[in-house]
Amino acid sequence: MRIAILSDIHGNADALAAVLDDLSGRSVDATVCLGDHLSGPLEARRTADMLMTSSIACIAGNHDRALVTTPRSDMGASDGHAYDQLSGAHIAWLKGLPASLSVGPVIAWHGTPTSDVEYWLETVEGGRMRLADRDLVEARAHSPVAIGSSSLLLCGHTHMPRIVRLKSGAVVVNPGSVGLQGYTDDAPLHVMQVGAPEARYAVAEKRYAGWAVVHYAVPYDTANVVRLAREAGRLEWAAALESGWIA
Ligand SMILES: [Mn+2]
User: 62 CA distance to ligand 1 centroid (A)?
Assistant: First the structure.
């Protein structure tokens, strides 16, 4: 079994198009997308249209949940910018997204098995993100949701491409972010940056008892999304889109 793993597009339709074009040359049995599809100062409507007309199996991220549960007046700039582009059909699609999905031996969540906002593989320390300690990664895998016999556990949310093996032998894979390679967040305040602007995704293939995982970094023309971010006054977005670094 081969599965393509996308996550955290954040309205970057140009990056999504580049990933889907890259993926078109590869043979996969299924493609999944792990949430935070639309939120940001870019092209939420175009991204939603692309996903809704594709065969990609999507789950909801915390921002997708916010778009259908938060009053417009209480939304942050990124959610509000996306929301204002969406039709009733887009909202209905968002409302129908599950919080998790499983395909054969693969199971996927946005954050962790129990939360779409918790980091699974990373810890924030000194305003930066690092690989979480082993016992914490194991503890966050524990869940009333049955991991069962799944051997490939997928998460997104932190935008950091990573593979971590659990003591059970199962691997947790974060494919990184299709659309946004850096951000700052609060509570606690920290910077996340990949250090390169390419669109990220991963392909995992079952091999014996394990998985061969390949992370891809796909170049695309960032001029349009950088311009859109600047026009929206989101200079940090523009820096991350252009360079993969937060200015
Ligand atoms: Mn998220």
Answer: 5
Nearest CA to 192 among 140, 144, 125?
Answer: 125
Between CA 113 and CA 228 the distance in angstroms is: 34
CA of 207 to the centre of ligand 1 (A): 30
CA atoms within 13 A on the CB side of 141: 26
Ligand 1 centroid from CA 29, angstroms: 25
For the stretch 176-214, pLDDT in tens is 999 999 999 988 899 999 999 999 999 999 998 899 999
Please tell me the CATH code under which domain 2-243 is placed: 3.60.21.10
The one-letter amino acid code at 70 reads T
pLDDT in tens, 121-164: 999 999 999 999 999 999 999 765 567 789 999 999 999 999 99
Q: Are 105 and 152 in contact (CB under 8 A)?
A: yes
Cβ within 8 Å of residue 199, ≥6 positions away? 12, 15, 16, 18, 19, 177, 178, 179, 217, 218, 219, 220
Q: Where do the domains of the chain lie?
A: 2-243
CA of 185 from ligand 1 middle (Å) equals 11
Query: Would you say residue 54 has pLDDT above 70?
Result: yes
Task: Report how far ligand 1's centroid is from the alpha carbon of 101 (Å).
Answer: 16
Q: Is the CB of residue 176 less than 8 Å from the CB of residue 201?
A: yes
pTM equals: 0.97
Measured in Å, residue 61 CA sits from the centre of ligand 1 at: 5
- Ligand 1 centre to CA of 87 (Å) is 22
